[in-house]
Write a structure and sequence with these properties.
alpha+beta, 30 helices
Length: about 1000
């Protein structure tokens, strides 16, 4: 799925404004944000799919010198009619049209093409090829389909007439039970003049560039077919070329590889035995990429705002933020391509900078290159030695080569720029992964990568001295940056969010019109990216079609009888919109094949040839330069003769022992969790409660290393840098970072140790060994050897002092003296609660004041903290008229639970409340997930006698089994009431950078939001 450009991201935000009323009328939860589960995807060495450009130009000249193909047999297997609604990506490529422009008599938007050329060692007979094509049509529904429906909405509801409402007649793929066309409608034969390889190459290349810029597929969509296959033959023997061309809505390179491999295998079988004995299994209608990634019935039209999560919002904001880095998208000779201003202009319904008269004249310019098997192998080995994939290295080469041409021929020494590279992805690998690439379909997707600033002509500098340490560092740092950005994208669930956001944008707005406006823009000339790279991986490692007599799918074969695939080249058009520079690669029989297909005249034919040569030279230099692998370079651990993996094994061993000490507590925890899940009717209730537990279970152990590092920082000897940080601490950090960077074993051991420490700390919380006051994590924990299950009723703990309770008198400031509550931290001090009712008496607000860390928790650094002088947080709840007086409903982190006021002590003179005991308890499925107990007073200091009396009242209330005994509660630390405000260099720094103001604004915004 294609990432949104800056204009498209802004358009999403604009569209929301005009749809929000319609959404809220139908879906009351429009503003709710659901949680998202991060899906970790394996980073594989080859992305088997290609990026699709935003549109393509008008028809190119047709190929002459063709002969009519003989009518093939129309005998078909029993194929049932199949149909489904197009997905958003398919609607972009088809493309779905824009009614207001058609009503004005303007030309329809052109389709997006996909072209692949397969150079074969031998020429098949037309008869055998025709039969194989018809078998393929019966196998793959999209090869025999047409499109029904115009995709027009019920209405467009914004002033720009681009925000859609309703979809009464969506575009649909329809694959009839009886084919309405045969091989005669898709197969063309070109008899090449001349018998040499040069004549054959010229013929298929002419076909390739013509079909790449052929936008007329839309005119055929209502009848089909949406693809064709052209055979170029110098004679009836010897080498030939097959050129597959289609509307990109039905195919991508991975699935076309499956198709062509099937056709070649079937041709060979037909010519050898007269028929195909082991036919391909008939396939179902493929799902759309949205269904494959999000799961069935999870498109925007199905779930609306229910699919939006915090991850979705973050993805949109990240896309918007990319524009502020101003990546270069045009050579200096072609203009500036101001993306921010252009985005604003575009969402207003105009082309940025006005419409370019030459936009429809742009055509693809093509160059084809090949790396030898030896060079390809050496290049792969260099990538492995440096811990990156081939795709990562291709991206690095693309960024370097782009820097050589971006100045438009006018050398600007010292000039640096940012680059935005589009990396193609196979979306089959992400999310629900429903599509298995066993039929022809399009699952194309991509990811944006940002690099820079990179000096102009960095690629030239690299090629002139590839063996220098600076050149090696430059290239491999770029490759590793590509690897790391890709990994972050995968681990943040980026592919799923990209699909969801694009589906949203296409569903509620006329994105195709936005694409058209961008394509015609004088400012951007349809460019959205500095460059793009598509790596389809290794041809013969991909899976072939499933056959009737085989349970498993075999791998694609380079050779079927006398038919050997010698070369493959493929591409999609960037002539109207897309990347400034673009390359598509695939490896066949050990040799990498490269297609360079940018748009002319933005990139001239000569410039593209020079770019292709420079790019290939970068790869050759990498392949021919001796590069030490990480193990060859060595590190300080290897020099100490410590065998690789020793530290990791040691850390793992110690970690297992440490975690095992709490094995019983972990077992009890999982049993309680299973009981809760089994007894809760609504899964949401279970997950809300469990997520509440997880949030605080994770928070406590994460705080410990922060406090430790803080004390190490302020306890380090030596002079201070800027009167703040000891120089020795900075040096120690440099050494630590160096050790981490140089030794993989050290990094792994550190990660294992950190994970073990984390699990051990949580295990101690489950075992009751990490502080019963603030980290007693066990569900349904025990007291005096007896398991105490669930939560008590209010009547079971309510004390006589609550008779005649007046909630208004309960308002005001309270000083927390003790707590048993894992939502609080023992490391804070001076805790206060300022409780106020809302004006309608139906709600309440708790201004929760804390300072931290406490002096005893961080003896050397407590007074350096940004919250050493306190901070305020707000909790909110409601007063339920059905509850007896003394119960407040508290809500936070997705759960609501009762807050029992169990006991109050009154001033004998005034009747005001001077002390109080609160008890919160959360139960799900008979399992107590959380209990919180607070001892509070109107005075900051309580005597030991007063505290013992409060414990006795809690015991009388039956609260000891829930954590109210002296050994189960934490005493809140307090500074003297008269102690001055903390003031030192660190506090002055926090004030200078506005941290105190930021905390105030945060507190105010939370309070306002809660009200």
């Amino acid at each position: 799925m294609k990432p949104l450009t800056i204009a498209q991201t802004a358009w999403c935000m604009y569209s929301i404004v005009f749809r929000v009323n319609a959404f809220t009328a139908t879906f009351p939860n429009v503003l709710s944000v659901t949680s998202t589960v991060t899906r970790y995807s394996t980073i594989l060495p080859a992305e088997t799919n290609l990026f699709f450009a935003d549109a393509i130009t008008d028809n190119a000249p047709s190929i002459s010198n063709t002969e009519s193909t003989p009518k093939a047999s129309t005998n078909q297997n029993d194929v049932s009619q199949k149909s489904r609604t197009l997905g958003s990506q398919e609607n972009l490529m088809l493309p779905r049209q824009y009614g207001p422009k058609l009503a004005k008599g303007e030309s329809p938007f052109p389709s997006m093409a996909h072209v692949s050329a397969y150079i074969l060692s031998s020429t098949p007979s037309v008869e055998a090829l025709s039969q194989a094509i018809e078998i393929a049509m019966d196998t793959h529904p999209l090869l025999r389909c047409h499109v029904e429906g115009d995709g027009e909405p019920d209405e467009r509801i914004d002033i720009m007439q681009m925000v859609r409402k309703g979809d009464p007649n969506p575009c649909r793929f329809v694959s009839p039970a009886v084919r309405t066309f045969s091989s005669q409608d898709v197969l063309r034969v070109v008899d090449v003049s001349g018998n040499d390889a040069e004549a054959l190459e010229k013929s298929w290349k002419t076909n390739f560039i013509s079909d790449l810029d052929d936008g007329s597929w839309y005119e055929k969509c209502s009848t089909g077919p949406l693809w064709k296959l052209t055979l170029h033959r110098p004679g009836k023997e010897g080498p030939c070329a097959l050129v597959f061309s289609s509307n990109h809505a039905i195919s991508d390179q991975g699935s076309v590889n499956v198709l062509v491999n099937q056709i070649l295998a079937d041709v060979n079988a037909i010519e050898e035995s007269g028929s195909v004995k082991n036919k391909a299994k008939q396939q179902e209608m493929p799902v759309a990429v949205e269904d494959s990634v999000l799961g069935l019935n999870n498109r925007w039209t199905d779930v609306q705002t229910g699919g939006i999560s915090l991850g979705t919002i973050k993805y949109v904001l990240d896309k918007a933020g990319e524009g502020f880095r101003s990546p270069v998208i045009l050579p200096d000779s072609e203009g500036s391509g101001n993306s921010i201003l252009g985005a604003i202009t575009t969402i207003m319904g105009k082309s940025a900078g006005g419409e370019s008269e030459g936009s429809l004249e742009r055509k693809s310019t093509l160059q084809f290159r090949s790396l030898s098997k030896e060079t390809t192998t050496a290049f792969l080995e260099a990538c492995r030695a440096n811990g990156v994939t081939v795709t990562n290295a291709l991206i690095a080469a693309m960024a370097l080569t782009s820097s050589d041409f971006i100045d438009g021929g006018d050398d600007k020494p010292g000039k640096s720029r940012n680059y935005k590279i589009l990396q193609s992805l196979d979306m089959r690998r992400f999310g629900a992964q429903l599509d298995k690439c066993d039929t022809v379909a399009c699952m194309a997707g991509s990811n944006d990568l940002m690099f820079g600033p990179l000096e102009d002509r960095s690629g030239k500098s690299f090629r002139s001295s590839p063996e220098s340490s600076d050149s090696q560092k430059l290239f491999w740092d770029l490759a590793r940056e590509a690897r790391d950005q890709t990994k972050r994208f995968f681990e943040s669930n980026g592919p799923v969010q990209a699909v969801r956001v694009f589906d949203f944008a296409m569903s509620i707005s006329d994105m195709n019109n936005l694409v058209d406006l961008t394509a015609k823009s004088k400012d951007s000339q349809g460019r959205a990216y500095s460059a793009g790279i598509s790596n389809n991986g290794v041809y013969e490692r991909q899976k072939a079609v499933r056959r009737e007599s085989s349970e498993d799918r075999e791998s694609i074969a380079v050779k079927h009888g006398k038919y050997e695939v010698k070369d493959i080249y493929y591409g999609t058009p960037h002539s109207r919109s897309g990347c400034l520079y673009q390359a598509s690669t695939i490896t066949v029989d050990g040799s990498m094949k490269l297609t360079f297909h940018p748009a002319s005249p933005i990139v001239s034919e000569d410039a593209n040839a020079e770019f292709a040569d420079a790019f290939v030279e970068v790869l050759e230099k990498i392949a021919s330069t001796k590069v030490l692998s990480l193990s060859e370079k060595g590190n300080f651990l290897s020099k100490l003769n410590i065998p690789e993996g020793t530290l990791t094994l040691a850390a793992a061993g110690l970690g297992l022992v440490s975690v095992a000490t709490h094995a019983g507590a972990w077992s009890e925890f999982f049993n309680n969790l299973a009981t809760m899940q089994a007894n809760v009717a609504d899964p949401k209730d279970f997950w809300d409660a469990f997520n509440f537990w997880i949030f605080f279970a994770v928070g406590h152990p994460l705080l410990q290393p922060i406090l430790w590092i803080s004390d190490v920082l302020h306890g380090s000897p030596g002079p201070l840098v800027f009167d703040l940080v000891p120089a020795s601490f900075l040096m120690a950090n440099i050494l630590f970072v160096g050790a981490t960077a140089l030794s993989k074993d050290f990094r792994n051991a550190l990660n294992v140790a950190a994970l073990s420490a984390f699990l051990t700390y949580v295990g101690a919380g489950l075992d009751g060994q990490a502080g019963l006051g603030d980290f007693n994590l066990q569900m349904n924990d025990s007291y005096n050897g007896q398991i105490v299950k669930g939560c008590p009723a209010y009547e079971d703990v309510r004390q006589p002092s609550m008779d005649g309770f007046d909630l208004e008198k309960y308002q005001g400031k309270w000083y927390e003296q003790k707590f048993h509550d894992w939502t609080q931290f023992k490391e804070v001090y001076d805790t206060t609660l300022d409780i106020k009712l809302t004006s309608d008496k139906k709600g309440w607000v708790d201004d929760f004041g804390v300072a931290g860390p406490a002096p005893d928790s961080a003896k050397l650094s407590w007074d350096k903290s940004p919250v050493a002088n306190g901070a305020h947080y707000f909790m909110f709840g409601r007063v339920d008229e059905n509850d007896p007086p003394g119960i407040l409903r508290e809500k936070g982190f997705g759960v609501e639970f009762p807050n029992y006021i169990v006991d109050v002590k009154k001033d004998p003179q005034t009747g005001e409340y001077t002390e109080a005991i609160q008890f919160q308890c959360l139960e799900r499925g008979g399992v107590r997930v959380f209990e919180g107990i607070n001892f509070m007073s109107r005075n900051p200091i309580m005597t030991d006698e007063e505290m013992r009396a409060m414990h006795q009242r809690a015991k009388n209330a039956g609260m000891y089994p829930y954590g109210a005994s002296e050994d189960q509660m934490h005493t809140v630390a307090r500074r003297g009431v008269e102690d001055p405000k903390i003031d030192n260099n660190w506090q002055q720094m926090w004030h200078a950078i506005g941290v105190d103001k930021l905390l105030e604004l945060l507190a105010e915004s939370i309070e306002d939001g809660g009200r």
